């Protein structure tokens, strides 16, 4: 959790990410009113607006689907930094990756950093691995280009290490492919014969 200060009331509040500026919806609308973004509507203003755009007075009267000139098009006045919900063009994904919105597409920051470092576009089969496992640390010294299979192997080894298995994945492969008796393998790797049987069956690591 990140501790932030509300731009409207000045109170401290906590959120998962640092993109928030206001502690509540009330403070958000209060700041819009202070800045003049949100007009203070009166009953007379609402009535006049309703009468002006009612029925044929509405410019979209009778316009449906593809007849709408804005059908399937972006409105530049409400796109990018012109949109009221604009947060700088980036966000943090649920996995902790920093994502940038470029030309309507989500691009991970670590790929942008590596492409700028190499001076070329990355290939689809080139995967970027975070050496320190911190997905938010996109320093070039923390990034490593690997293939998909290499990336899977790296994370599999990390997972195996976190599980505290009795033997390594390499040793398990040796046991799985070995023709020796289970008793000899158990003595060699200092595990029980039952554990060797499980490896041979594919129930452990393989």
Structure in words:
Helix content is about 35%, strand content about 15%. A three-stranded antiparallel β-sheet has the order 3-4-5. The protein contains seven helices and seven strands, in the order ββααβββαββαααα. The mean pLDDT is about 80. It starts with a strand and ends in a 5-residue tail after the last helix. It has helices at about 25-35, 45-50, 110-120, 150-165, 170-175, 180-190, 195-200; strands spanning about 1-5, 10-15, 90, 100, 105-110, 125-130, 145. It has three domains: about 1-80, no CATH class; about 90-150, Alpha-Beta Complex (Homing Intron 3 (I-Ppo) Encoded Endonuclease, Chain A); about 165-205. Strand 1 and strand 2 (about 10-15) form a beta hairpin. The chain is α+β, with helices and mostly antiparallel strands.
Number of strands: 7
Strand order of the largest sheet: 3-4-5
Helix content: 25-40%
- Using only C-alpha atoms, the radius of gyration works out to 29 Å
End-to-end Cα distance, whole Å, is 38 Å
Number of helices: 7
Overall number of domains: 3
- What is the percentage of strand-forming residues? 5-15%
Estimate the global geometry from the Cα principal axes: elongated
Largest sheet: 3 strands, antiparallel
Q: Summarize the helix and strand pattern as letters.
A: EEHHEEEHEEHHHH
Which parts are unreliable, with pLDDT below 50 for 5 consecutive residues or more?
A: none
What class, by secondary structure content? alpha+beta
Mean pLDDT: 82
């Amino acid at each position: 959790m990140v501790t932030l200060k509300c731009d409207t009331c000045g109170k401290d509040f906590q959120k998962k990410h640092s993109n928030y500026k206001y502690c509540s919806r009330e403070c958000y609308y209060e700041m819009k009113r202070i800045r003049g973004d949100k007009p203070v509507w009166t009953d007379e203003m609402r009535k006049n607006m309703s009468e002006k755009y009612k029925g044929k007075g509405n410019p979209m009267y009778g316009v449906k689907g593809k007849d709408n000139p804005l059908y399937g098009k972006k409105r530049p006045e409400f796109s990018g930094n012109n949109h009221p919900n604009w947060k700088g063009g980036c966000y943090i994904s649920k996995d902790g990756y920093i994502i940038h919105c470029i030309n309507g597409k989500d691009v991970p920051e670590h790929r942008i950093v590596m492409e700028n470092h190499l001076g070329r576009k990355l290939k689809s089969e080139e995967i970027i691995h975070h050496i320190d496992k911190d997905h938010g640390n996109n320093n070039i010294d923390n990034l490593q280009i690997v293939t998909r299979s290499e990336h899977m192997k790296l994370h599999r080894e990390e997972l195996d290490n976190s599980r505290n298995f009795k033997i390594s994945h390499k040793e398990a492969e040796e046991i799985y492919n070995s023709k020796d008796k289970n008793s000899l393998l158990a003595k060699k790797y200092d595990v029980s014969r039952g554990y060797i049987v499980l490896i041979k069956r594919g129930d452990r690591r393989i």
